[in-house]
Amino acid sequence: MRYAGYAVWRGIADFVLDQTIGTETWGSGAWFGVHAAAHEQVYWYATNSCAADTPCPIEGSRSELLHRFRGWHEPIEAILAATDDNHIIRTDIYDRAPLESWCDGRVALLGDAAHATTPNLGQGACLALEDGVVLSKRLAQGFDNDPVDIPTALHAYETQRIARTTAIQRRSRRLGQISQLRHPLLCRARNMVAYRIPKAILERQMRWLFEPDLDME
């Protein structure tokens, strides 16, 4: 596993959002995301570039986060203020460098064991579910043969999945690096480019992420 260079705090707050869609705000070396979780509750997450295994300060996570995000647009500070310290968790972010192979004979990896990714594209659990669908199809196809050729079925599963998961691992890590930029000029250039990305390109990327082709060739 490799450290991504930042930590994430996640929490649940008793708070009513004015909007129903989730948002994510990028700053200098940090970003903050908000999503409606349930009736009068929100789920939020926040990052900050820091050394691995840096402990939270004694005064508590909320105090640290209120300090880090002071002056950010509303309702970020209000959401943090409405969060109980006991409802905040902190995690150093790691991923796995893409593997060249997941299979060895009758053994195959799946999910994070094969392709742990940073959370920037929100695809960790999704990729594991996709793996399960493809693996079950390949094994079912294998059982249709006599005798059953499990290693061949597992290799076909790996072949079908590895290019997509590798691409998502790399894009997610790259997005995390971009969102954690600190230098003012780099942040300004990043923001200008982000504002100017055509909607059609963003939609095509979203379709690629959320509409995978899981059929067997």
CATH level-1 class of the largest domain:
Alpha Beta
Q: What is the first-to-last residue Cα distance?
A: 32 Å
Annotated CATH topology of the largest domain:
FAD/NAD(P)-binding domain
CATH superfamily of the largest domain: FAD/NAD(P)-binding domain
Mean pLDDT: 90
Strand order in the largest sheet:
2-3-4-1-5
CATH architecture of the largest domain: 3-Layer(bba) Sandwich
Strand content: 15-25%
Main sheet: strands, sense, barrel:
5 strands, antiparallel
Q: What percent of the residues sit in helical stretches (DSSP H or I)?
A: 40-55%
What is the tally of helical segments? 7
How many strands appear in the DSSP assignment? 7
Q: What general outline do the C-alpha atoms trace?
A: elongated
Our count of domains comes out at: 2
Protein topology:
Layout lengths: L1 E13 L8 E4 L4 E8 L2 E9 L11 H8 L7 H6 L6 E8 L7 E2 L2 E2 L3 H4 L8 H20 L6 H30 L4 H13 L2 H12 L7
Antiparallel strand pairs: 1-4, 1-5, 2-3, 3-4, 6-7
Helix pairs in contact: 4-5
Question: Which terms would index this structure?
Answer:
43% helix, 7 strands, elongated, D-Amino Acid Oxidase, Chain A, domain 2, FAD/NAD(P)-binding domain, 217 residues, two-stranded antiparallel sheet
Textual characterization of the structure:
It is a single chain. The chain is of the alpha+beta class and 217 residues long. It has two domains: 2-95, D-Amino Acid Oxidase, Chain A, domain 2 (2-Layer Sandwich); 103-210, FAD/NAD(P)-binding domain, CATH 3.50.50. Helix content is 43%, strand content 21%. The chain has seven helices and seven strands; from the N terminus they run ββββααβββααααα. A five-stranded antiparallel sheet has the order 2-3-4-1-5. α4 (124-143) packs antiparallel against α5 (150-179). The radius of gyration is 20 Å and the shape is elongated. It starts with a strand and ends in a 7-residue tail after the last helix.
